Amino acid sequence: MPGPIQSIERAAAILRLLARGSGRLGVGEIAESLELAKGTAHGILRTLQGVGFVEQDRDSGKYQLGAALLHLGTSYLDVNELRSRAINWADALAARSGEAVRIGAPLEGRVLVVHHVFRPDDSLQTLDVGTLLPLHATALGKVLLAYDTTLKADPEPYTRRTLVTQTAIKRACAKVREAGWAAENGEMISGEAGIAAPIRGHGGIVVGAIGVSGAVERICEPDGGPSPRLLGHVRDAARAVSRDLGASRW
């Protein structure tokens, strides 16, 4: 039996490292973390970038996971029709709300963004498809966390508003289950907010979440709570997707 191929093992280690990280990583950081020569790390990253598995930020030169990885893991999404059923409703939600829309599914203790509709204006925006978001600091994540998704890692404090204690997170999850929606307000990125609601499949099982995100002043009321108008649009979209997936309740 032939032995393992070292270059593939190293490429897999780089992908795992980027998946665990909370942001982009530079060549030096990756090389140091994996005890690789900087030239070796750079060569592997360039190869991964060439096939779309990693992306390089033009400004910082740092790397993050690429959207092409999404296509390797979407077979289960095709089975339950989450992404295909939700696309049209996501477009409609963006048009009605005037905000960016993301659809998320649970993946290894994170939120995998499986679809992203840009805010319908002329502003410069970055596609988030394939991005992994934290459960405890995003509206999408709180929805999934409230319905049996496990928080595997210790909660990271992204801002001073991030929920980092198990007590606070459990309390927030209980509120999500009671209300049927989740919100974030400057918990992952200062000045940004979001609203999300669960997408249910057959048997009422939560299989994903759909939500809007944007500047706090557009998403939230002066008291910090979510805009009732936007909340209504998000919940309507979640119900519509759930109906298409065969959910009998939502």
TrEMBL record:
Domain annotation HTH iclR-type: ranges:
5-67
Q: What Pfam families does the database record attribute to this sequence?
A: HTH_IclR, IclR_C
Tell me where in this chain the IclR-ED domain is found: 68-247
User: Keyword annotations for this protein?
Assistant: DNA-binding, Glycerol metabolism, Transcription, Transcription regulation
Q: Which GO terms describe its biological process?
A: glycerol metabolic process; negative regulation of DNA-templated transcription
The protein's GO terms of the molecular function aspect are: DNA binding; DNA-binding transcription factor activity
Q: Which domain of life is it from?
A: Bacteria
List the PANTHER family. Answer: HELIX-TURN-HELIX TRANSCRIPTIONAL REGULATOR, ICLR FAMILY (PTHR30136), HTH-TYPE TRANSCRIPTIONAL REPRESSOR ALLR (PTHR30136:SF24)
Q: Give the function comment from the record.
A: May be an activator protein for the gylABX operon.
Q: What is this protein called?
A: Glycerol operon regulatory protein
